[in-house]
Amino acid sequence: MIKIGFFSPYGLSGFSGVNAALHKHLSGEGCQCDLISPPPPWRANLVKRIFYKATRQLNGLQYLWEKGVSRCRYYSRHIDQSLADGNYDAVLITGTENCSFCKTNVPLYSYGDSFFGSRVDLYPDQVLAKIHPRSIHEGIHVQQLALHRLRRIYISFQWAVERAKKFYAYQGLEKIEAVGIGANLYQDTGIVKNTSDNENLGLLWIGADWQRKGGDLAVETAIALRNMGIQVKLNLVGASHPVPDGTWIKHHGFLDPQNGEHRKRLFDIFFESSVLLLPTKADLGSLATLDAFALGCVPAASPMGSIPEIIVNDVNGWLIAPYSAHEWAKVIARNVRNSKTMKEMVERNQLLFKTKWNWFNVCQKIRNGIREDIAMRK
What we know:
By secondary structure, the protein is an alpha/beta fold. It has helices at 18-26, 41-59, 69-82, 116-122, 124-127, 133-149, 158-168, 215-227, 260-271, 287-294, 307-310, 325-336, 339-355, 359-377, and strands at 2-7, 31-35, 90-94, 108-112, 152-155, 176-178, 201-207, 232-238, 249-251, 275-278, 298-301, 318-319. Helix 1 (18-26) crosses helix 14 (359-377), helix 8 packs across helix 12 (325-336) and helix 10 packs across helix 13. The longest helix has 19 residues, at 41-59.
């Protein structure tokens, strides 16, 4: 039996549900996964608020305390102290930077969706223009340290692995492995819903950032489809928006998939939607796309970041490059009017969820990798 310690600064919470999913599915097949409790959250949150307030007042730029040297030393020290009794064979950490200064001899592994440098590259307007240069430097520095400290780094997408070459001048890419990511909303009913209702097309947009996630284009696309004679209902989940609710558009606010009532509402919204709109201007990946796969919703997305690893154009969704509502509406209208095409895409996506994009597969790869690594060290 291999005993794996699991550490995240946020414990098993977290809006995306990734921490809870990893912890749940890592146990099994000869592995026991125990949570290493994070330090008291009030202490970290207090320091974070002080940093945010002070830096913004001084120069209007933000200091990312969670990517800073002080914060990484803080969590590295906590991990070392938690491992002092020698109860664990290995530790899996979410967020590579959290172990940058660890001194323990226990093998350390990490899981994440990307590296900080990838975000700098993909979100230049949001990162370079709004964050203090020292903070960017520290964010890249602590991840460089972590890349050398970790035994293996498990990443969601191959796209992020390739970015490591550019930002960290790191040649040991053999220790970085893309293992995928899983849907957090799923219900294995074995039923493929009808997504070809020409008279009433359900559209869904999900995003925490209205501008970056293309909320404006989602609304404009819905209007363009209505102008083509397709009766559309648009559900908006997440960020507030400047468009008032109406008979065909409804905003649901932020819904936490870890909350029972919110989770049920998310299921209901997905089940009444045929197409997921992801007209993002910058994105690393999309959990919402995987949820759409599991719940019978076909994604239409911008080909940003790792999204082309998930969606193959005209096979299991649509990758639409032009940032034009007319183009988006034209592609969607052409496909939703073909019930056979839509049904085949839904079936294909549900198969992809069951065979690839699920947490069982992800954690099996991580477990096997840790087990092999430990065996080689003995």
